[in-house]
DNA sequence: CAGAATCCAAAATGATACTG
DNA sequence: CAGTATCATTTTGGATTCTG
């Protein structure tokens, strides 16, 4: 059990190759990609603006994710030969082809999130009710 | 710069709360969940069978992912009081509601995978052509 | 059979300082 | 401005052993 010689990596690659869903998720997955893609769906954007509007992202992550998206052919990087430098990012045609999928995911996500939200609240209410019952039980036998 | 007290965790939660897509991805994401969900879309399945048909998954991961899916209300765990024990897993109604989304993701994934595949081959052909040119160039000035 | 528990490796993310 | 480089930390995944 010295080296696992990346069974991990191997498993990942295998699954990506067989399963379309896994492949898609590996492309749009990661913590920040959904947000970046969402923003770029509305039009091109400069690097600095992206950094400022995405709350909490580090420069390292932003560049990294952008580079991956670029490598996957979803995002185009446009460099203007100016000073101070200016770089814009925009979706390619292939990137735009994700729109229906992204909307489908987003819709289900919001639906599920809302549902779980209310369930949680119900659970909390139940717990509260239980505690209340205990307390009251002691007082009113 | 001692403790980051999980800015990581915080960022994740924030994004999940704001962005439907990120929330959905955190639910169906992970290396094995797409495969598990895909299998369960075809009907209920026993634990052992899941383990056997998913190539390369470890028991730990299988149980872990199933538990998460259960917690998120997508999968139901059915225990039969028999010996030897028997446990089956099936999608809940909420789990089934993912079907259109999953198909949309899978379709795009396969499309994108195929496209990148051919692009890679084209690149390889180009490289090959270049090398060939170099070799031939030396021979036929 | 279906898993729980433990321990370790690898990948993802974050903070920060520096540069053309 | 738009990054790059480096290092620390957090999270995820895998192997193995044990149990009701």
UniProtKB/TrEMBL annotation, chains A, B:
Residues 111-138 form a coiled coil. GO terms for molecular function: DNA binding. It comes from the Bacteria. InterPro entries: HTH_HxlR, WH-like_DNA-bd_sf, WH_DNA-bd_sf. Pfam families: HxlR. The keyword Transcription regulation applies. Residues 19-117 form the HTH hxlR-type domain. Keywords: Coiled coil, DNA-binding, Transcription, Transcription regulation. This is DNA-binding HxlR family transcriptional regulator. It comes from Rhabdobacter roseus.
């Amino acid at each position: 059990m010295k080296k696992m010689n990346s069974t991990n990596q191997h498993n990942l690659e295998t699954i990506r190759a067989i399963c379309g869903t896994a492949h898609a998720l590996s492309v749009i997955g990661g913590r920040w990609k959904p947000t970046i893609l969402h923003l770029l769906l509305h039009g091109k954007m400069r690097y600095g603006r992206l950094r400022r509007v995405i709350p909490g992202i580090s420069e390292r992550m932003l560049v990294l994710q952008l580079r991956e998206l670029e490598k996957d052919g979803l995002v185009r990087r446009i460099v203007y030969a100016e000073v101070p430098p200016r770089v814009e990012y925009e979706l390619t045609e292939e990137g735009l082809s994700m729109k229906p999928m992204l909307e489908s995911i987003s819709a289900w996500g919001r639906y599920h999130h809302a549902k779980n939200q209310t369930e949680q609240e119900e659970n909390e209410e139940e717990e509260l009710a239980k505690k209340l019952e205990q307390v009251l039980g002691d007082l009113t036998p």
